[in-house]
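Q: Sequence in, structure out?
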Amino acid sequence: MPFRLHGRDRAGLDCVGLAALALDLRPVPTGYPLRGHGGAAAWLDARLTGVAAAAAGDVLLLSTGPGQLHLGIWTGGGLVHADLGLGRVVERSGAPPWPILGTWRRER
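A: Exactly. Output:
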């Protein structure tokens, strides 16, 4: 699936759109800049439960650079995320290469 800023459907997704689609999270924020969409934690807090350790299917909030936040979905052995540099949604195996700021889970 292609990367598209503010993408919310099969035409393209960004990291927020990916998390929203995968976990059916509504409403989905729009209009935030590519860098510094600092409301991500509050958006996740309102829809999911924060947890201390990640399990498969959890959403991770990551710090990919100064003032830049990113969401991904932990698979248990890798991270599915919308990769701007590659221009598509990908799965990266192994631990995330960025610091994890928080982890959220849908109550099961």
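Residues 15-23 form the longest helix (9 residues).
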